[in-house]
DNA sequence: CAAAAATACAACCAATCAGTTGTACGTTGT
DNA sequence: ACAACGTACAACTGATTGGTTGTATTTTTG
């Protein structure tokens, strides 16, 4: 159950980051995270055709960063925080790898210091 | 000074997210965050030409997510955590917008409840 | 010195992307 | 009923992307 394969996760990440890699889309996401907006309302904010904005919304929707709900003739878009959090979590995982490197470097430093205490360059007195 | 304009910030974000929107690049970033690797060492890990991997490294470098240092004939790549943190911070800012929406919704709910206490659906007793 | 290794970079190609215009269809207001 | 509005989608275009091969340069190694 909930069998999320590695490539599925990477596929989603591809979609997430690609969706966020456009400033118009990031701006749209900001707005729909702050509150619901119809596609035409959003479109009025940008110097491009309605169809172009509609495409951007579609990209965000496919990436799962936003959901649309129909009300009469309007399509109301709303940002999905959980998805944004997931992207953030991915970045945190990257940071964890870095922390692993640092602790490994610390270990190495400790080991070197104990085996040969004078290994640290003695020429570095002044400059 | 350090006058960072709005578009400069957006330019960097474009580069960041675009760099992260490719799974090979994300994988390279993971490796170089965990420790220094030469470009050819990285290249051996992927089923593509050396030049292709070299290009991916260049994209990450231009985005500021990784730095290269020359040692002899090798180019050693190392991940930049600060940049990763900056990307994370951007996501956190998006989350903050959402929190703003929620508190505004809370206010609205409180106001509605005080003016017409029976507005809330009485059928919603159980779940 | 000559061969091998690691890098850099240009030129090319197929695929995708971000934008456009045009058309069609359901919904709203007069 | 009908005009205006909001949406959806197809078709097209120029720019960018992710990959390739080929060539040149520098550094190590035998």
From TrEMBL, chains A, B:
Residues 5-99 form the HTH arsR-type domain. It comes from the Bacteria. This is Metalloregulator ArsR/SmtB family transcription factor.
């Amino acid at each position: 159950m909930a069998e999320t394969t590695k490539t599925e996760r990477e596929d989603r990440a591809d979609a997430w980051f690609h969706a966020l890699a456009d400033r118009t889309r990031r701006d749209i996401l900001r707005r729909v995270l702050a509150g619901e907006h119809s596609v035409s309302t959003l479109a009025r904010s940008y110097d491009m055709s309605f169809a172009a904005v509609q495409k951007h919304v579609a990209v965000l929707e496919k990436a799962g960063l936003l959901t649309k709900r129909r009300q009469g003739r309007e399509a109301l878009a709303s940002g999905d925080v959980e998805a944004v959090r997931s992207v953030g979590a991915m970045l945190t995982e990257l940071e964890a790898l870095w922390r692993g490197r640092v602790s490994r470097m610390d270990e190495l430093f400790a080991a070197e210091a104990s085996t040969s205490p004078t290994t640290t360059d003695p020429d570095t007195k002044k400059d």
